[in-house]
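Encode chain A's predicted structure.
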Amino acid sequence: MKKHSRTSIAYIAGRLTTGKRIASLYDFTHLDHIGIDSLPKAECLQKIASTYGSVKESSNKYQCCYHVEEDQAIDLSINGSTFMGYVTGSNAYFIGNVRGDMIHIYDEEDSLHLNYRISGCMVVPGSGFICNLCWRPNEEMTAYSMA
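Encoded structure for chain A:
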């Protein structure tokens, strides 16, 4: 499975599970920050919510189909904090879970265990929302107010 597909899966699962508007993820496998705006079709990813595209919600269960490339889409099912799915047009299956700001994925095709952390949230000015769960990698893991 391609790196950007795995990152997109982490973003979608994190977004729908936590409700946060994620701006960036930290990839513990590759030791780097990934800005969501650097991913293919980022503008569509950033709009994902229970009202976007083919995302369907019923009592904390989601079914999502997100087109990554012309001939491939991520088919993702979420039940609580656990998710699973596949990339259409390939043999790429995955399973994972979200715990707080940590997103864990097992990529069956490449036999990889991947870990991501929500490292930045988008805060809408004037919304009154304060993100206390984001962290900065060069400092201690403490709460930051982004208001």
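Residues 3-18 form the longest helix (16 residues).
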